[in-house]
Amino acid sequence: MEFVVIGIGILVLCLVIGMPIPFSFATTFIWLAFSLDYQTDFLLSAGYNQLNSVVLLAIPLFILAGGIMEKSKIGTALIGVVETFTGHMRSSLGMISVVACAIFGSISGSASATLSCIGSMMEPRMTAAGYDKGYTASLLAAACPLGLLIPPSSAQILYAWSSNQSVLACFLATVGPGILLTILLCITNAVIVRRMNIKVAPKQTADMWVRNSVKNFKFGIPALIMPVIILGSIYGGIMTPTEAAAASVLYAIPVGIYFYKGLTYSNLRETVVDTSCTTGVIMVMFFMVMIMSRLLVMEDVPQSIADALLGLTDNKALILLLVNIFMIIIGMLMDDVSGILLCTPILLPIVTALGVHPVHFAAILGVNLGMGNITPPTAPMLYLSGRICSAKINKMLTPIMILIIFAYVPTLVVTTYWPALSLTLPKLILPKIFGM
Length: 436
Description:
Elements: H1 2-16, H2 21-35, H3 40-51, H4 58-71, H5 74-86, H6 92-108, H7 111-128, H8 133-143, H9 154-163, H10 167-173, H11 175-192, H12 206-235, H13 241-259, H14 265-298, H15 301-312, H16 316-333, H17 336-353, H18 358-372, H19 380-389, H20 393-417, H21 420-429
C-alpha cells in the first residue's frame, strides 16, 4: 500500500508542476508497475480492452460538432433566441451568457468549447454595457461547466462507460442539477449586478419586440433544431449516443456553411485537424488512466479508502461530505475527463455501499468536477476565461468565490442529499433499470 501512496503522490506532484496529464499518468503507471512487480504486457492489454468500445466514438464526434459550432454562427443564433426572453433588464446580458452556455453546452458537451464560443461573443457586449471584466470572466467560467451537466455530455458518456451504466440514464440524471445550477447562477448574477453601473437598453414597443423576436427565432431555428435532433433521437430510442453524435456533425456542417455562412471549407479542415489532435491526446490519456485505475483496483485501494472512511464514522451524510471534498480536490487538480476516470473506480464502490445509486452518483460527480474546474488555485476553466476576456486573475477571485458559494455549493448539496432531483427523470423514462 505504501507504493500506491507514493505513486499517487508522484501523480499529484506531476500535475502540480504542470506536466501534461497523459505523461503524469504514464510516469505513475511505470513507477507502480515496476514497484509492485506487475507484468506490463498484462496491464497494456487491459488498457486496450477498455478502449475497445463503440461508446467512446461519441466523444470525438461531439468534440467535432462543438468545433464546427464554434467556427460557424450557431452560437450567435442561440444568443439571439435567449435575448428574446430576457428582455432589457439590468442583469439581462449575464442571464443571456448563462443560458447560452447551457444551450451551447447541451449540443457540444464541452466546457472549453462553450467558453471559447460564448465567451468570445458575450465579453465585448458585457464590457460595453458596464460589466466589470473580472466579473464577466468569472460568470462565463462558472457557466461553461453546464456542458458537463446538460446532456448530451461527453463526461457522462465516460462515466457510463467506466461504470457500466446506461448512458441515457446518466444523461437524464444530470438534467435536474443542470437546470438548478442555471437558475441559481442567473439569480446570483441579478443580485451582483445591482451594484454595477450597467447600461440598460431602452425598452422596446410591443411591435418592435414582436418584430425582433420573429427575426431572432427565424435566424435561430436551425440552431435550435440541433439539440432537438440529438436529445430527441437519444431519449426516443431512435439513436444511440454515438449515432446521435454523428448525426449532429452531419447536420452542423451544411447548416454552418450554407445557412449561417460562418463555416468555410478551410476552417472546417482546421476543425477536423484540431479534433483529431484532441482525440489523440484524449485517447492516450484514457489508456494511461485506465491502466492506473486497474492498478488501484487490483491493489484494493477503493476498498481500503472505503474502510478508512467507514472507520471514521458510520454517518452516511458525513461520509458523502468527505467524498464530495475529495472529488472537489480532484477537480481542482485535473480536467473533468481525468477526474471521472480516476474517481469512478475509487469512489463508486464506496457510495454504492452507502446505498447511493450509480446513476445518482453520476450527477454528484458531474457537479463536483464542474465546481473543481473553476475553484482556485488550479481552476483550468477560470484561467481559460481570464485569457479569453483579457481579465486579471486577482480581479476574478472574489466574484468566482461568490458564484461558487451561492450557486455551485447549494446545487451540490441538493444533488447529493436529495436523490429525487437526479433520479426522477431516469425512473420515469427507464423504469427497468431501477427494477420498477
